[in-house]
Specification:
With 91 residues, this protein is an all-alpha fold. It is built from two helices and no strands.
Length: 91
């Protein structure tokens, strides 16, 4: 395959998609067990807080925390993709 639209002379490339490695063993088991458990704990905490405090302020805080956690996780995923891309490109 010849690269098109790049500056410089054309070069042969193998641009097939290669996904990140899936989790194996202990990592996979931990994700399967801890993921639903974390959701259960979160629902229990939210239920308890709804009974004890000002509901609107608490849920806005929970929404903000969820957004920040998701942002950190997505940035980590992006970093992993970049590492795989550099490794695939050879440098």
């Amino acid at each position: 395959m010849v690269a098109v639209g790049m500056s410089g002379p054309p070069r042969d490339t193998d641009d097939r998609f290669r996904p990140l490695r899936p989790a194996h063993g202990a990592r996979f088991a931990a994700a399967i067990i801890l993921g639903p458990l974390a959701w259960l704990v979160a629902f229990m905490v939210v239920g308890w807080l709804a009974d004890k405090t000002d509901v609107i302020a608490v849920f806005l805080f929970i929404t903000l925390c969820s957004f920040l956690i998701a942002l950190v996780v997505l940035l980590l995923f992006r970093g992993g993709r970049e590492l795989e891309r550099r490794r695939y490109d050879g440098g």
